[in-house]
Amino acid sequence: MPVIKDAVCSFCGSLCDDITVTVEENKITKVGNACILGHSKFVGMFEHDRIETPMIRKEGELVPVSYDEAIEAAAKILVKSRRTLSYGWCSTSCEAISGAIQLAEETGSVIDSTANVCHGPTALAAQEKGSPSATLGEIKNRADVILFWGCNPVHAHPRHMSRYSIFSKGFFTEKGRKGRKMVVIDVRKTDTAKLADKYVEIDQGSDLLLITALRSIVNGHEDVIPETVAGVPKAEILELAEILKNAKFVCVFFGMGVTQSRSKYKNGDAVSSLISDLNQHTKAVMIAMRGHYNVTGFGQVATWETGFPMAIDFAKGYPYYNPGETGANDLLVREEPDAAIISAADPGAHFPQKAVMHLARIPVIQIDPYANPTTEIADVVIPAAVVGIEAEGTAYRMDAISLRMKKLIDSKFKTDEEIVKDLTAKVRELKRGA
Amino acid sequence: MSEMLIKNANVCDPVQGINCETMDICIRDGKIVESVSGSAKIIDAEGRLTMAGGFDGHTHSAGKINVGRFMNPNDARKNLVPGLSGQVARTEKTRAQVGYNTPNTYAIGYRYAKLGYTTICEAAIPLLAARHTHEEFKEIPILDKMGLSLFGSNWQVMEYIRDKEPEKLAAYVSWGLRASRGYGVKIVNPGGGEAWGWGKNVSGLYDPVPNFDVTPAEILMGLAEANERLQLPHSVHVHCNNLGKPGNYATTIETMKLFEKINPSRDRQALHVTHVQFNAYAGTSWRDFETGAPMVADYVNGADHMTFDLGQVIFGPAVTMTADGPVEYANARMLHEKWSNQDIELEDASGVVPLFYSPKSFVNAVQWAIGLELALLVKDPWKVMFTTDSPNGGSFVNYPEAFTYLMSAKRREEVISGFSKMAIDRMVLPGIDRELDFYELAVMTRGIQSKMYSMPEKGNLKVGSDADIAIYDILPGQIDPSTEYAKVKKAFSGAAYTLKDGEVVVKDGEIEATPKGKVYWVNAKVPANIDIAMQKDIDVKFRKYYTVSKSNYMVEDTYLQKPVEIATEGVF
Known about the structure:
A: 3 domains; nine-stranded mixed sheet; five-stranded parallel sheet; B: TIM Barrel; globular
């Protein structure tokens, strides 16, 4: 029975690439090294219902059709549309993303990724102040102070702490956990916070105040700090600043508690500034805890192909970027799109009600291996192979290192890459006909 | 079989010693040949200047440039060189384009081709992130591509040098090139990347690297020896220590001297020093900063073991990007600019910072002058490669503008007249009246590249070479570049024809076709026993310190578009 070593797990942004997978009769029967989330992804495939066939909504009901019929129906929607929103593309391969960008360019669409409701503000922060970062191995080998801010890797990135951060052992960090100090800043005592050497609980939405206070202390202006900031006593903030300044190597891992709370991108902007200031005293870097396994990849591919990481509007024939105007939710809330193509994401479950209501009113094409709430409002449903299991391709880890995902088993489903290619060909054909 | 005849070409091909002579060029199946049949397609060059396709031997065009794009979305809209920058809608032939310093991949391909360039060498590939570089290569149309892999702060390299294991070091370099599909050995601020892992830097050639007990000088010599042992087509490609610091010209000359004892294993230089403009500063601080170019040029004029490139500054916005992590942090703090950094585990560092070169700043004005001084004070153009270290000194789309500085003293005077007296006092450029001719320009933009990269089929128009050809709308006998520099600039900004492998890709400055280019990489053979011993050492590195598996580290074949493997035989 074939045992595939060093498979890449296509679940979260940790992109663990040491997974051992046993395949018997085209089924994955055993998974080694994966966390519970990764394990469910590899094995859950055989337990959860897939979208078994392409479907088109007729008289309110989704009815099975062939791939060709579904592609043609989808292409007709795209050709007819004057303002298409293309959204998602984060739990898929860079090759599929590249195809989706070309399709968006040719159809004058707006294309956006799930960063719109996730780490989009992190990109905006980098555009303000830059992104002083490092690969995860730098943390493994050097970091003696690790700060998790507004993130909960125990649940969201279960192997992060053992492979890359707090529990891992590296060249200058032979003692592992014992040689490292772990700080957690959050609004509630999460399971990650319970493991911390120092937990700082802050008032909800007050991250920017605390970061600013820390910067003031690091830059020698502790006299301006009031007695309490963000619900934290000044003495505790001073103590925290000392931990950071006296470290040999600091890494701030930050999650959506920082990016999607009050002050949004200003938080990431301030973290970046704090990192720059800390480097006057020690070595410090920051890494965003990206969620979907290839949301980083969308940003990378979109940036080299269009110049921008997300929210790209091709209406003028060239890429135009103005998040706040050209983001997926910006468009939907303005009721602007007259059609949508959604892949590897579930806005039906995760977008604000007003945005979902507009999606429900317009023709929606869905490309996904699994049914989800978006399927309920989709008009053309195209099932896809699961990338990283049934299809190969490239993905980017949260630290922007790219890895080749393997194909582990055969599938009767087309890959996202193939579907996009077929769809683009059909759109071109219809346009020529017109 | 496709054939083409370029009639009445005024050929300037320094590799063959041809200086603007009118002749015909025959092409068959993408190569230059002796003769073609009567059915060949004919292009009448009408006596216009014809050169081999340009070859940018040091540019940041894939990989790290993405960080530059990511943090500078404003660059996408910049249109400072109309026709070669800014937002351009898609057409039937071309993808949408954006940008100036950090264009998207498609724009990079189209715009280099419009300048008559057909080959680029990406200046820095981190081994661990090499896959990303090749993903971008795939999306850069038309051009042939290659890249230099970073070894200068690599743990395994430093350990082998410290432990005096030159054979295993060579085996590791060979493996690293194979893993990253690189063409040559790049060394950036040797040892400085590792020091930056702790927020520090090395101060010169003999300042030991923290925790590794080797000096930058030892890293340079160790890698140079490995480079020659493997008979690599290119010499080591060095970004010196102390880049960007007043007084650094001394370190630069000291580095060049070190290599006098290196015997090149092939018919090429033993050392290439890159973007020397940034490393030819005199003075002791930014207060008494002045040109160090005369000292560097003086040394280079007496040396015959090395080549260098300029890193010419272009006034206006630029984006600095380098594996020299500490330099970028220093830039960001000094200029109060945004700062991105990416340290690569076990291997190197890097950073990206946007900046603006202003003729009103005396430091920037002197930097601008230093690049030109180096080009003009070094007598032998076969030692000088023209670059702006794009986009560090400025975007490649400004090359035609920079050519006018090299070809016209009058044009230089015009620019210098806008400088402050303090700036003029700190440079020697106003006293230099040398003006390059087309022949010397062709040496610096295609001829030297052919030799320094050991690519006999590139950068020249010999029979057997690739039919990568640029025809510019210039009649060499009837133009005086010294005074008619506006015409020169216009002609170099949009080739009348650019041919890639015999196919017309640009006509009258517009894109005609967008074929895919080749990717060159070097596979250096190493005896099996030495390779096995070396593999055992790196297996430990992967098991204990890397965060990716060894099997997932190697760039897979699928990422290489039209790969060309250059095999060399290591001498052990």
